[in-house]
Design goal:
Largest sheet of chain B: none
CATH architecture of chain A: Orthogonal Bundle
Structural class of chain A: mainly alpha
CATH topology of chain A: Helix Hairpins
Number of helices of chain B: 3
Distance between the termini of chain A: 41 Å
Number of strands of chain B: 0
Radius of gyration of chain A: 20 Å
Oligomer: heterodimer
Strand content of chain B: under 5%
Structural class of chain B: mainly alpha
Shape of chain A: flat
CATH superfamily of chain A: Mitochondrial import inner membrane translocase subunit tim13 like domains
Largest interface: A-B, 20 and 20 residues
Order of helices and strands of chain B: HHH
Number of strands of chain A: 0
Helix content of chain B: 55-70%
Number of domains of chain A: 1
CATH class of chain A: Mainly Alpha
Amino acid sequence: MNQLTAEQRQAVLQQAQQEANQRIMQDMIQKMVKTCFTKCAGTSGDRLDSREQSCIASCQDQYLETRDQVQKSLQQRQSNGMN
Amino acid sequence: MAGWFGGGGGDNNGSDNSTGDKSFSTGEDFSGGGGAAELQQMSMMLQQQMLIQQVINDLSDRSYEKCITSRPSDTLNGTQVACISSTVNKWLDTNEFINGRLGKKAQQQQQQGGQQY
């Protein structure tokens, strides 16, 4: 690392950031799949039927909203703490 | 498989492994170049393997919980086998379904935020 120029170092850091973001995204998707699967999937048949699909669609939308709300709550708390 | 563990490292002077451009190396190959690319490939491969194993572990757990609900016995009966197949397939479906929808949402956002059609 010591032999890199400032530019190269920047590029490495950026890539690390991108990879971290990707991993976080993947982590979220995995959790979302798990949660909605547990909630909506039955045990008969080898494909999701239309009822299960719409259940999962709703679950997914609510999950994403929940995540948004969680972020907002955290931000709120942080800004409250600073006053 | 042995090649990944035996052929890695920085000593590229004599090997035919590197398919990349050697023009950036001035003779000493230890500072990155081919060695780093190989390491990265190996790392990615290991990560993929890990991922697959994790999925298998997770699905096994999931299938067991969902499907093996009666008293433990020596083998699985037909209903249980069908249930496991169902669980695995629906799981893969769910993955596809959710990722597909996320992709569509991302596309929609791009279209809204970018050019106006």
